[in-house]
Amino acid sequence: MITYYRKDATILLYPHEACSRSSFGFKYWSGAGLPIRLINIGWDRVSSPAYRWHGERRGGGYAVFQYTLAGRGMLRDGEAFYTLTKDTGFLTVVPGDQEYYLPEDAAEWEFLYVVINGIDAVNHCTEIIRQMGPVLSFREHLEPVAVLSRLYKEIYDNPQLDKFTISARLYEWMMGLHRLAEGRDIVRATEELPGPIRAAVKLMKGSYRNDLSVDDMASAAGLTKYHFCRQFHKKTGLTPSQYLRKIRVEQAAWMLRHTGKTVQMIAAECGFEYANYFIKVFRTLVGATPSEYRSGKKVDPVSFLRVEP
């Protein structure tokens, strides 16, 4: 987003707000092509109840996302009805038994929308809907909307924008939705974590060789054990014990790649009391035993391995 300052307040604007309301459509010579492609993107405001789209009356093989900027809309998904107010958006795959429209008692509905197709577009959207349902709240998670807003402005400024650049932006937006689905407000970069959680991670990274308990981690965070576990999972997507295991396996992978120490020695130095348990954990997270990883069997040994939930 773009930030403007004035004496009495700070104003946050989406990039598209520097443009006018418009819409852009895209057609492609080939039927297949990119696995995620932009069909339409637009910024619109409707005020007539005649505005109504039905998911079983408009072709198929694509997904629609619509984010409410102002006013109010409605979505019917099967027998469920959803009110679409500011900071909410809906995601739907067409064809399907869905209908979105301006309700008769609403004055207007202003929104930013995108229509995409391609195998990745449909598959990713289907999975996000499975996890979160058709309606998503962005009140505290603005980045996915900001990505689409930036894309609208880019296309508005340059309607001939390269199709590969457009697809890259759509993937960025889609991954933002996956992050939202996976953990709502998960933060991946350690430096972005809240201070108490960052303190616990620092303890884990400095003392992963030791027998750390969740109580030790909560103490480093300055939180009660219950509150610490709840906040830690909310921010990282992992429990404290899982995160410690991730650190230990990543360090073990580095030692397997850069030292000649035995598996038993590496297990002990990475905080695993028993080598057999270390082998089991390593194989579960990496997909290969420590020996297979070291020799390049099943997976390629890399200089640095990152384990993600």
From TrEMBL:
Highest taxon above the source species: Bacteria
Alphabetized UniProt keyword annotations: DNA-binding, Transcription, Transcription regulation
Protein name (Swiss-Prot/TrEMBL): HTH-type transcriptional activator RhaR
Keyword DNA-binding: yes
Stored Pfam families: HTH_18
Encoding gene, per UniProt annotation: rhaR_67
HTH araC/xylS-type domain location: 198-296
